[in-house]
Amino acid sequence: MSTLELPAVIPPAGLPGWDALWSRLVQAPDHSGTTRTWHVLDTAPDASGGDVVGTLLCVHGNPTWSYLWRGLAAAASAVHLGWRVVAVDQLEMGFSERTGTTRRLAERIEDLAGLVGALELSGPVVAVGHDWGGIVASGWAAAELGRRGGRHGGGSRVELAGLVVANTAASWPAEAGAPGVLKAVLAPGVRSLATRRSEAFLRTTLALPRPALSPAVKAAYRSPYGTAAERAGIDAFVADVPVGPDHPSRPALEDVSAGVARLAAARVPTLVTWGPRDPVFTQWFLRDWRERVPHADVHRFATASHLTPEDPAFARVVLRWLDQRVLTPGADSGPGTPQEAPQDAPAGQEPRLWAALEERSGEASVAGSPAVVEMRPDGTSRAVSWELLGRRTRELAAGFAARGVRPGQRVSLLVPPGADLTASLYALLRIGAVAVVADAGLGVRGLSRAVTGAGVDWVVGVPKALLAARALRWPGQRIAVAELPQVAQAGAHRLAAGFTLPAEPAAQAQAAVLFTSGSTGPAKGVVYTHAQLSQLARAMGAVIRIGPGQPLVSAFAPFALFGPALGATCVVPAMDVTRPATLTAAALADAVAAAGATSAFLSPAAVVNVLATAGALDDAQRQALGRVSTLLSAGAPVPTALLQRVRELMPLADPRTPYGATEVLPATDVGLSDILEAGAGEGICVGRPIEGVTVAVAPLDADGAAGTDLVTTPGVVGEVVVGGEHVKDHYDQLWATHAASVDVRPSPTLLGAVRPGRWHRTGDVGHLDERGRVWVEGRLAHVVVTADEVVTPVGVEQRAEQVPGIARAAFVGIGPRAARQLVVVAEATAPVRRTTVADPVLSQAVREATGRNLAAVLLVPALPTDVRHNSKIDRARVTAWAERVLAGERAGRLA
User: Three-class SS string for 323-385?
Assistant: First the structure.
């Protein structure tokens, strides 16, 4: 036996998360026909007597071993009717035999086929692979697809049921160098030192996961690789990365790429899981998977790096996908594609978003009137006519096409609200590109995560945005706002030469990715089709009461874009749109006067500042605001007292606060008069569902969790669930998140009102009253569960805020459930400089008003709020802070 030949052995006892009963040594012929010994993780002996519905054939990459799949194995074993997990240690790796043979990609695929035959696997098998093991698994799956229906190897009969990959490649250009940081490892003189003669490559890989692996888990990963001889396979695996056209494994990789295409053509259920922080398998590889397998479901784990299966949610996501996509393939739980869209989709004939713009730009009677008015801080303004906006949109559409923007490509628009943004958006939609709209209010970090995660092909932005794109290495080609006139000019020349715009995109084609505010977790990309985007605009128009001849002042960027779709002039006031609270009453009045607008859309934070600065209005500005008949504020609850003060400033308006989310807006509509009629209640009255929308609740259980059954019974508290045709299509690259958001079981009556898949679980909790009005009682994540009860926060907070001396309150629970204490953290009407415990009189008044035995009432200078709206209280942050304060720790400032 040479120094590179080592026998297969059983892993040592006591490895964290590893069940010794899983280990098997299996003999199987390799690609040459030589019998080799593999170490295999196999959960079949520990299936607890449960039936097995199929097998997960898991293949690790480099420099890991089958230990990578222990979380998936444990989760699958815990299910009575579950999946058998067979995770291999590839030859030369892990605890399998070291043969001293250099194994290329094609040979590893054949080796795996020989093992499958020796294991005599039968029935449904899903190939699961990570890193270079993902390439091996994909190659085996493609070969198995060709053998479908026949016997293979040692007599197994396998039914290829699906493919799951994690941070791996479907292809790699022959002319490209090594991907990511592998360039450094493959440098002359480095590879052997880093991979075989030392543990550098191994330890660097194990340092990548977030959260970090424990020392014991890292030691478990290193356990089969203690000597240079044991690490020879790591070195050989790196050497087999097919860089360049002449690499020996280049033909095999191209065969795998062709095989992936066959799997896609056969529509084999496929799940692509991804850690976006991977320094090797970058965004390029994910985009390549999405292009090669368009029907694949994609789920990105926001904080994951290279070792994606180490993410705490990985096993849960995979098992849920297997249940809904493999075991019950008809389930409507994931994103649709144009090929999957129902032929009788009721919105198929919905006019496209740009239809009204084209119509009005061609009408002689209105073509010269303003379509967009931009107000500037210096008191001047810029008005763009319908004719000019329509022409510029067509020119930009042709110009973008000339630059190389293609249908289906994603374009991030980082342009301030106004004519440039409006024309660019409509131009991109017209040629079938997908607009990616992420609010600058997300901050640099959040915006970077959104743009990078969306996998944009182009970035159109102001200099500051393009500078950030370069510094943060955002993907995509770049077009500066200053270049738009040249882009339009090039498009005008093309149109004059007879160029015609491409055919209008299909109704069910993707139109936009709109990012959520990030106020309740990382911002999520919400995908809308062209039909849904048009329906959303129409629904908003009905609530805002705008249309031809009814101008809108919008202080919230996304809704400034809907005006032209409704034939309405849109006025953008002078303000910093990334900071809603910068809108002053004077700026609002000037915007209203500029176009004779009768409708205005403000965020709650903007409403607060408008009222705070109303004293500076002159008579003309007061008269202008006095002509506003519709004022809307959405994005967060607006206190009734605030709406009443708005009415004093705008006496003709019945201030309205439509309820909804980025995923479905609007869902309900309510005005101040409706709120006053409803009176006091538990939570905030957000009105009745708008036309075409159904609202139900998924009742909470004793643990504060919402089920899947939907009811409309008055008074039942549960998660608010909204159904309707303008509900989002899906979350972008977040399959599990989307599946959870549509996981409902409506009654036959509700099922008849809303098509399957057109539901959205909002994450809010509330109830319906006897008159069908919806009351929101807080966020599901902020429900306080004690040993005795489940308490929603908003009602408690409202009652606390009625106590003299309390301006704004947050209700939280701290400590373990069995001994959880209730706490109110509040801003006082008389500002305080530092955190203090309320005096006994005030504390008792708050306890009596809320009806709760509060452990403490804490007064703070300010409560923390979200980034975009500047108004939603960050209760998670308040909870963590209050925990530290009451534990006697130094908690620091809260906001």
Answer: HHHHHCCCCCCCCCCCCCCCCCCCCCCCCCCCHHHHHHHCCCCCCCCEEEEEECCCCCEEEEE
Phi, psi of 216 (to 5 degrees): -65, -40
In sequence order, what E strands does 690-820 have?
A: 693-699, 718-724, 730-731, 759-768, 774-779, 784-785, 790-791, 806-814
CATH code: domain of residue 872: 3.30.300.30
Nearest 10 degrees: Cα torsion 186, 192, 193, 194: 60
- Identify whether residues 855 and 740 lie together within a single domain: no
Give every strand in the sheet of 52-59, ordered side by side. Answer: 23-29, 35-42, 82-88, 52-59, 122-130, 157-166, 270-274, 297-300
Does 292 lie in the same domain as 164?
A: yes
Number of residues in the chain: 895
In terms of average pLDDT, the best of 61-65, 362-366, 376-380 is 61-65
Does any domain span residue 251? yes
For the ranges 255-264, 341-350, 873-882, the one whose mean pLDDT is highest: 255-264
CB count, 10 Å around CB of 593?
18
Q: Tell me phi and psi for residue 840, to 5 degrees.
A: -55, -35
Average pLDDT value over all residues in the chain:
90
Q: Is residue 534 in a domain?
A: no
Which structure tokens are listed for 606? 């903007």
Tell me: do 828 and 728 sit in the same domain: no
Same domain, 761 and 806: no
Closest CA to 224 of 233, 235, 211: 233
Which tens digits make up the pLDDT trace of 502-544?
899 999 999 999 998 766 667 899 999 999 999 998 888 888 8
3-state secondary structure 67-123: HHHHHHHHHHHCCCCEEEEEEECCCCCCCCCEECCCCCHHHHHHHHHHHHHHHCCEE
**Count of domains in the chain?**
3
Asked whether residue 814 is assigned to any structural domain, the reply reads yes
Write out the residue range of the structural domain in which residue 685 sits.
676-780
- CATH code of the domain in which 204 resides: 3.40.50.1820
Instruction: Please give the DSSP secondary-structure letter assigned to residue 310.
Output: G
Residue-wise pLDDT for 59-80, tens only, equals 999 999 999 999 999 999 988 6
* Strand-strand pairing, 98-99 and 759-768: unpaired
Distance of CA 138 to the CA centre of its chain: 26
| Three-class SS state of 524 | coil
Shared domain check, 856 and 792:
yes
* DSSP β-ladder status, 82-88 and 98-99: unpaired
What average pLDDT score do residues 245-254 get?
A: 96
Q: Which of 758, 780, 802 is the last residue of a domain?
A: 780
- With tokens 């309205």, the residue in question is 656
Lookup: tokens for 545:
């009461």
- Region of 769 please: left (phi>0), alpha (psi -120 to 50) or beta: beta
Q: Do 95 and 126 fall into the same domain?
A: yes
The verdict on 228 and 94 lying in the same domain is yes
Cα–Cα distance between 402 and 489 in angstroms, integer?
11
DSSP assigned state of 12:
P
Query: CA–CA separation, 458 vs 479, rounded Å?
Result: 8
> Which of these three, 300, 327, 354, is where a domain ends?
327
Quick count: other Cβ atoms within 10 Å of Cβ 163? 26
Q: Let me know whether 719 and 849 are in one domain.
A: no
Other CB atoms closer than 10 Å to residue 828's CB: what's the count? Answer: 16
- Model pTM? 0.88
Say how many C-beta atoms besides its own lie within 10 A of residue 349's C-beta: 8
Q: Could you give the C-alpha distances from 94 to 19, 61, 136, 168, 204, in angstroms and in order? A: 16, 10, 16, 19, 17
* 500 domain residue, yes or no: no
Contact criterion met (CB below 8 Å) for 602 and 583 = yes
User: In 10 A of CB 473, how many CB atoms?
Assistant: 10
Minimal CA–CA distance to 85: which of 69, 109, 105, 100? 69
Query: What was the pLDDT predicted at 79?
Result: 80
